[in-house]
Amino acid sequence: MPYQRSEKVEQKMEVKEKAIIIAAKEIFARDGYSAASVKNIACRAGVASGTLYLYFDNKDSLFMAVMSELYEELLGAIKLARKSEKDTLHKLSASLRAALNIFAANREMAELVVLQGPNSNASLSKQVATMEDLLAKLVSQDIEAAVDKGLLPKQHALISSLAFVGSLNQVITSWLREGKPENLAEAVEPLIKYNLNALGAKTSD
Amino acid sequence: MPYQRSEKVEQKMEVKEKAIIIAAKEIFARDGYSAASVKNIACRAGVASGTLYLYFDNKDSLFMAVMSELYEELLGAIKLARKSEKDTLHKLSASLRAALNIFAANREMAELVVLQGPNSNASLSKQVATMEDLLAKLVSQDIEAAVDKGLLPKQHALISSLAFVGSLNQVITSWLREGKPENLAEAVEPLIKYNLNALGAKTSD
Amino acid sequence: MPYQRSEKVEQKMEVKEKAIIIAAKEIFARDGYSAASVKNIACRAGVASGTLYLYFDNKDSLFMAVMSELYEELLGAIKLARKSEKDTLHKLSASLRAALNIFAANREMAELVVLQGPNSNASLSKQVATMEDLLAKLVSQDIEAAVDKGLLPKQHALISSLAFVGSLNQVITSWLREGKPENLAEAVEPLIKYNLNALGAKTSD
Amino acid sequence: MPYQRSEKVEQKMEVKEKAIIIAAKEIFARDGYSAASVKNIACRAGVASGTLYLYFDNKDSLFMAVMSELYEELLGAIKLARKSEKDTLHKLSASLRAALNIFAANREMAELVVLQGPNSNASLSKQVATMEDLLAKLVSQDIEAAVDKGLLPKQHALISSLAFVGSLNQVITSWLREGKPENLAEAVEPLIKYNLNALGAKTSD
DNA sequence: TATGAATGAGCCTTCATTCAT
DNA sequence: GATGAATGAAGGCTCATTCAT
Predict the structure, then answer these.
(1) Phi-psi category of A137—alpha, beta or left, where left has phi over 0 and alpha has psi -120 to 50?
(2) How long is the CA C179 to C1' E7 vector, in angstroms?
(3) What is the CATH number of the domain that holds C8?
(4) What's the whole-model pTM score?
């Protein structure tokens, strides 16, 4: 029964691959890209360092796998949150709120996505940047849509979207590095208000 | 003749120290802290690697020297720009404008200050963060002052200042990495407007 | 008056050369040959490292100069002490006593002659060994003379002289490294007695 | 097949570890601690320099491993020789004889134990000195025991034991460096006689 | 003569990657 | 597939020596 066997093996491999990614997240988040050693990651994953190379081409590609997974998760959560909202501006707010919530719940992810991802190594940074862009593009599209609908005044959508995303990044960075704000939760509403004001949304209050 | 230090030699040394810092900026900007090698830097500076250690204690201290110089330059430009303005809100705008201008004129500095500085190495990052903080504090103080004067509505000053600085960072990051916006100049006014709106300033138009 | 001038200069140089040797003794004694750095020695001598090379070909030759001087001093003291004695066996005792006395009075010398000298570097060790030999030869000659005169029984003069010198060395080594005996003075008589017994001298008591 | 360690691999590793130690003995004996380079040792062992660090933490610990092994071997031989003797004084003679024999058979060991060991590096020397002391203590205990039994006259046991060990050291040193005596074998009986006389043993002849 | 900045070979050590098992 | 011992290039840094001044 070669078919079943292959399935089992495949399952085992998936398990191992996941273990490696989980370990990699921990180590990369804690030590940063350069200081993280392959041996450490393998060790944490309960796997020999050679084994790691059966699942990933090299350290870089492991890092990218980690980042991809994180971005997928992050964007998934954001997209999900947006689905519950009809109004474009509410979509924007929901995005911000979802991002802050997921980072608050998963500090490691924040560390990786916000701090380590963008600063790994010349070539990796470029690839990560591509993923980072997705969020900016989402925001940009919302802004353009809202402008079209007359919900927002005309503006430089690129700059606005970058500013929007940047404000989020900085708050998280400060939270991670300085512990200020102490809780991401307290940042949610002020940050949403800040950006909606910035975009020119007429807030009800 | 027991060695004439004062004149030529001292000058030559200053020149050499500067050459090393210039080279370090190039290499650190291009490769990042970890991937940059001391040998490379020395080589680029036209100096033997041992020579570098006559001017700097070690790689870390060279990096800090580079960063310090850059922050001094950056904050100097910002403070200068602020001096010409009386009004608190104008001070804020002037700060943003000055920062964008200096980065536009000095892409390498942007690369180092915005991208490499924050992600070098655990202990260096902390020191750099201290310098980064200065800008955020400046903004925070302005906001609080403006709120006190009734120029701005009450708000969460920490979050507002982080968002302010973050929006700037992100625009520069995107410019460096994606080439969008193509020119920082075009970002200046939209970004100022974005943040003034965000802060709740009543814009005249 | 070129003659006088040359004399002055020569004097100055002798002063400087001596300063370097004095400094070298300190540093070599403290750090050992390899760990002692030329720069440190020059610095301690109040001289630039380049200057050192006007007086000595290189680190090795400086070390040899130090050792030569020490051996000269040591052997001088020993020969002087021997002169006051007529009897061959008394010459031997006097040698031992003189050696212990000079080391007790000059711990640095002991450190260099006994510990550092023999273990500097492959080629230096050989040269130092040649100087070490002088003491052994002196002892050997005494033994042979005493045997000829019937003061000592026939024996393997080489072995006896080596043992004699070795016993001295070991006591000093232990004194330097372990602080046992606390005082070299207390070692003098036991050590003399040990070796006279060893040589077969009929001690009066 | 998750890697078969137990048999061949483990054996190979032991072989390799031994090869490294053997190479280290050669190089340390030839060049001394400081001048010996890790690369050279690895090379002589037929191993990459990185491999060496799989077996030893660093150069220091490799050196200590070498010295420990040698001291173990040396003291083992001495203790074995002593076991065959009942009389305290015979134990002493047997110790000396055993030491000379093992050095005669293993010149490299002599080089390391007598010449290099004591002069490696500040912190290592101390550790080595601890091992060196064992021999001196053995001798010291014998002397004290013999004195108690009335086999030897009262004496300064510390000085006597140091002299005893020193005489041995010096003979070996001279043999190694000067080639005198040509053969250690010829030194055995004279040296034993020298020291027994020294201690005040009533020799039968 | 005296200086000390400059050199660069060489040091010990790390670590991503490979490959025999 | 899994292992982990082995590799060796590359890293930061030191220091005896040189040489322009």
Answers:
(1) alpha
(2) 43
(3) 1.10.10.60
(4) 0.91
